[in-house]
């Protein structure tokens, strides 16, 4: 491992080029031009995008395997292997790019769990999956390891995911496979990665392997989308190409680029275009992100509130983190989540999406209208009632007022 981490590798300082439409691209520009005129966090964002890009590549390769496996919550299921493998890939790339001494990650995965004697089969599967993925590293502009990683090396890499968060200093927040139910059936899921410094999110990346290019494709069942994607030419409109969405604090811009380029080849740098929130400011015309998973959420209150404020459009049904992508890309305008009593919102589920929406022109706060606080550890401890995300200030103010008016009468 000492040979793997002697010094940070030198990554190119550009990851994409801007386009007005999917098929028309301008010349390559540096990432600092795409995201911010400032060079601060440029290197970190470049590394984060590559890490999430490779993680999504890994997930796409394993997706058919875990869809056919019914053991969603089994400790050795393909879905579990994918989660641990993503953790390893992200930690490895960040360490290679920035130096392992500079990488501390907050995530749901605990290396102690993988180190237990009864998880040897799981660990072997993770090591095999990680090495297969890292063999493709040059396609993402990253030099692959000189030799395959062993069990001890994988455990050492994962051990960097031991941070518990802090109000000071720097750490990464990783959601390795958000949307378990969505991923299990081939629907929407995401890999989320954000950098938090002194309690503030400074950059965020969402990897969305199944995010469709066209909004209207959300209305079709995922099995139909998969069938169509196999029958249609692999153009830039192919639904299952997936996408990477990212933003940096203070840039006032958010960007989206495909996971795959034409003919399902990985091209680095990929092409990117700027995304922005919808301009709709009338609740009667707004689209509401309706969570598919009802667990750990006051679903009935959310639905009642949506009806009371006049959100009458057909809702956009999404899984977890995908709600942030939908609003940032202008495919929806409103999202609300009110946690069940005793349930804690994890910072890795919201940090990347929140900054992407904010830089795309939207607003994300708690239900009182205060900014989300990522300085209290693993959870959003000071969260007031719930989370509200909107495409603009007008919609946001109306939703916050409605929450205040409905909360007491709902007896929640």
TrEMBL record:
GO terms for molecular function: 3'(2'),5'-bisphosphate nucleotidase activity; metal ion binding. Keywords: Hydrolase, Magnesium, Metal-binding. Its EC number is 3.1.3.7. It catalyses: adenosine 3',5'-bisphosphate + H2O = AMP + phosphate; 3'-phosphoadenylyl sulfate + H2O = adenosine 5'-phosphosulfate + phosphate. The keyword DNA damage does not apply. GO terms for biological process: phosphatidylinositol phosphate biosynthetic process; sulfate assimilation. Signal peptide: none annotated. The keyword Hydrolase applies. Mg(2+) binds at residues 108, 177-178, 349. Its cofactor is Mg(2+). PANTHER family: 3'(2'),5'-BISPHOSPHATE NUCLEOTIDASE (PTHR43200:SF27), PHOSPHATASE (PTHR43200). Belongs to the inositol monophosphatase superfamily. This is 3'(2'),5'-bisphosphate nucleotidase. It comes from Sphenostylis stenocarpa.
């Amino acid at each position: 491992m000492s040979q793997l981490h002697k010094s940070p590798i030198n990554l190119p300082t550009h990851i994409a080029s801007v386009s007005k439409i999917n098929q028309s691209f301008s010349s390559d520009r540096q990432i600092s031009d795409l995201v911010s005129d400032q060079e601060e966090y440029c290197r970190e964002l470049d590394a984060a995008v590559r890490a999430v890009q490779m993680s999504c590549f890994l997930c796409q390769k394993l997706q058919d395997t875990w869809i056919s496996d019914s053991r969603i919550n089994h400790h050795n299921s393909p879905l579990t292997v994918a989660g641990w493998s993503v953790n390893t890939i992200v930690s490895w790339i960040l360490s290679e790019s920035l130096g392992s001494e500079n990488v501390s990650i907050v995530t749901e995965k605990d290396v102690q769990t993988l180190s237990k004697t009864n998880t040897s089969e799981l660990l072997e599967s993770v090591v095999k999956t990680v090495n297969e993925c890292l063999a493709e590293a040059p396609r993402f502009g990253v030099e692959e390891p000189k030799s395959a990683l062993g069990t001890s090396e994988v455990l050492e890499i994962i051990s960097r995911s031991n941070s518990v968060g802090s109000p000071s200093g720097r750490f990464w927040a990783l959601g390795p496979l958000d949307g378990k139910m969505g991923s299990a059936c081939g629907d929407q899921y995401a890999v989320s990665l954000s950098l938090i410094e002194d309690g503030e999110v400074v950059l965020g990346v969402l990897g969305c392997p199944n995010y469709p290019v066209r909004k209207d494709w959300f209305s079709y069942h995922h099995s139909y989308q998969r069938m169509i994607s196999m029958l249609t030419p692999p153009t830039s409109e192919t639904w299952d190409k997936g996408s990477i969405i990212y933003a940096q604090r203070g840039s006032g811009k958010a960007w989206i680029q495909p996971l795959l380029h034409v003919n399902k080849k990985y091209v680095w740098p990929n092409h990117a275009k700027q995304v922005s929130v919808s301009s709709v400011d009338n609740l009667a015309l707004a689209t509401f992100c309706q969570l598919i998973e009802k667990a750990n959420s006051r679903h009935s209150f959310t639905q009642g509130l949506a009806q009371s404020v006049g959100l009458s459009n057909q809702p956009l049904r999404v899984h977890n983190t995908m709600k942030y992508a939908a609003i940032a890309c202008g495919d929806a305008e409103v999202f609300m989540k009110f946690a069940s009593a005793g349930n804690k919102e994890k910072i890795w589920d919201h940090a990347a999406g929140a900054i992407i929406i904010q830089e795309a022109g939207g607003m994300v706060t708690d239900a009182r209208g205060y900014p989300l606080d990522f300085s209290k550890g693993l959870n959003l401890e000071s969260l007031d009632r719930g989370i509200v995300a909107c495409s603009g200030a007008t919609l946001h103010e109306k939703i916050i007022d409605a929450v205040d008016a409905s909360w007491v009468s709902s007896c929640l």
